[in-house]
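Proteins fold reproducibly. Take a sample protein:
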Amino acid sequence: MLLPQLRSGDTITITRLDRLFYSVQNLIVVGTDPRNRGIRIHAVEQHIDSNALEGRDLFGMMSVFAGLHHEFVRAATNDGLAAARARGETGGRRSRLTPEQAEQAQQLYDSGASIPKIAQTFKTGRSTIYPYITPKPAN
């Protein structure tokens, strides 16, 4: 990657800002570090230079817009989660095993079957089985 190799006084010359940054938020997050390290960012076609007053102002305005965008996304996410909760939905991945399969997996484990064998029975990986198994208490 380019950015970790740069030193103070270096210049990144690009045709447009979108050649280095994929979003305004990325521009602010990733673009702040080089400027703080004394690395100049120069976008030729857009006439943006992070060392010039106009370029610093543009980066400042974009940081405000990125913050606003972040707030919009966060609010929309929270609204979506609240609506899902109101419908009785919970977040996260769906269970890989049905409650009946989970009970059967526990019974197999209690009868001495190994975790790999149980996983093979349900055609899944071992890591999928572990959350469904309650180990026997140690005597």
